[in-house]
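seq:
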Amino acid sequence: MPADPGPGPEPIPTHPTQRRPRPIEEIEWKDRALKAEAALDAAQKELAALTERCATHERNLQSVAAAHAQAQAEAQREKAMTDALAPLNPIDPDLCLTLLERELEGAPPDDARSLAISAAARLASERPYLFRAPARVAGAAMAGEPGEPRRTPIEDALEEARTSGNRTQLLKYLRLRRGA
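struct:
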């Protein structure tokens, strides 16, 4: 006999397909869904921030790599100029390097060595007073005493100014260099 639908609570269905979720379960599921969506939004924001940081770091790495390549090219250029001047025996290597730098200012870095050699040779021909005369090779019969090569008074004054650190010695060296 069927139950009499009378006043009172609704009977709880025993069959799982007939069972409806209770309102508390619905609230819990909605709360879980809202929390999951909030966590997803937070994760997406964090991912965007990390992506931006990664892009910033990549740009920084690229600029550091470019600066490193530029510094390396400058070092190679400096070495090429020093190597080009060495066989010409300059009196004041720093001055000669400065003149070479000014001449090679806009030169491409890939052929810096050949340009430095030609510029140093041109500098030696245009301004021979910046370079020492090549040492003459004497015959075996005329050989002098072996030993230390003779130094110029300018070199002596330079060495004395370097070692003493005295201002008077430095001025003496500069006067000698200007007069040479």
